[in-house]
Amino acid sequence: MITASSHEGMYMGKGDVRTRRGKIVRGTFGSRRRRKRKKTTDDKKD
What we know:
It is a single chain. This protein is mainly α. The protein has helices spanning 20-26, 41-44.
């Protein structure tokens, strides 16, 4: 017996917001694509 995947209808790549490539295309950040932290004056003292 063949069953449908739970991911049927979903796709990966530029259109998928959960992938790194999808985040880059949309210009958003999240756990898959971290935002680089800006250095503050406290960080420069070290």
